[in-house]
Design goal:
With 311 residues, the protein is an alpha+beta fold. The protein has two domains: 156 residues, 2-Layer Sandwich (Ribosomal Protein S5, domain 2); 121 residues, Alpha-Beta Plaits (2-Layer Sandwich). The protein is 35% helix and 28% strand. Strands 1, 2, 3, 4, 5, 6, 7, 8, 9, 10 and 11 form an eleven-stranded mixed beta sheet that branches. A hairpin with a 5-residue loop joins strand 1 and strand 2.
Length: 311
């Protein structure tokens, strides 16, 4: 095999709770993570010359060691003694710096892709451990689907059955949010309303769309919304336009709304894009890969999706 193409999926957080802080400064999290169908195309090609050549359709995107995908390739070369170089091209579709794990999922795609491209004997658990060296969201982006993430994001528990299908509107305000700054501003002793994570897990297992939406919650909104009121305004407008619920994803600034009707979701997306003069609004759907013991065709039919791997 000389070349492999991967689909690196974006994620949203159905719940995001911060339960404490470690001595090293990392926050302890408890969150339910969920993929959506929106993806970046990641092409990886072998090259005889040593080194890493990374390109992207976004001319301003860093294509050196500042990019997680580049660092993932270097880590795989060092960890497995690969002497061949690689050429990587990332066709970005996921909004950048949006709370959707765009950088982390590209990183995960490179880790998985290089394993397959070079025929490496490495378990998923080992790949997740390698991914954690690069970022807290990377292990989830390797695992994918509906997952309970704990610790700093590295303790992953698959949720079965996975989240039932929703249509999803992703609306990114025209602002930049620093994840590091959000966590620095978060005051744990002032959090009064924590998400009902157990209730969310029960709702997913019961495949109860309404209960899932009612249990959504993100404590980081307490920090980000006061600084960026447009996030609250977007949430309110999506609800007015028929979303079952709406919430900020991750540390923001992207707001997502969950819909049961595709036409209603697309109509809402057009309206918020026009009304808020947004550059990046996407209508997509939840995505869950097939898991052990489940027929891929059945999963694909339920989610309108035939590809069930990072491909």
């Amino acid at each position: 095999m000389e070349e492999i193409r991967m689909r690196a999926r974006a994620k949203i957080n159905l719940t995001l709770d911060v339960t404490g802080k470690r001595e090293d400064g990392y926050h302890l999290l408890r969150m339910v993570m969920q993929n959506v169908a929106l993806y970046d195309d990641v092409m990886i090609r072998r090259r005889q010359e040593a080194g890493i050549v990374l390109t992207s359709n976004l001319p301003w995107l860093p294509c050196d060691e500042r990019n997680l995908a580049w660092r993932a390739a270097r880590l795989m070369q060092e960890e497995f003694g690969l002497t061949e170089g690689v050429e990587i091209h990332i066709q970005k579709r996921i909004p950048v710096a949006a709370g959707l794990a765009g950088g982390s999922t590209d990183c995960a795609a490179v880790l998985v892709g290089m394993k397959r491209l070079f025929g490496l004997r490495v378990s998923q658990k080992k790949l997740e451990e390698l991914g954690l060296r690069l970022g807290a969201d990377v292990p989830y982006c390797i695992r994918r689907g509906t997952v309970l993430a704990e610790g700093i994001g590295e303790i992953l528990t698959d949720i079965n059955p996975q989240c039932p299908p929703f249509f999803v509107v992703l609306a990114k305000p025209n602002v930049s949010v620093s994840t590091k700054s959000v966590y620095q501003k978060l005051k744990l002793d002032e959090i009064r309303n924590h998400p009902d994570t157990e209730g969310m897990l029960a709702a997913i297992v019961a495949q109860d769309h309404q209960a899932i939406c009612k249990k959504m919650g993100n404590v980081l909104e307490n920090v980000t919304i006061p600084d960026y009121p447009i996030i609250a305004a977007l949430k309110e407008r999506l609800l007015e336009l028929g979303a079952e619920n709406a919430m900020m994803s991750g540390s923001g600034p992207t707001v997502f709304g969950l819909f049961l009707d595709e036409k209603q979701a697309k109509k809402a997306a057009k309206k918020v894009q026009r009304e808020f003069s947004l550059k990046e609004v996407v209508t997509t759907r939840t995505f869950c890969p097939a898991r052990s013991g489940q027929k891929r065709k059945e999963r694909g039919k339920q989610y309108g999706e035939t590809d069930n791997c990072i491909k």
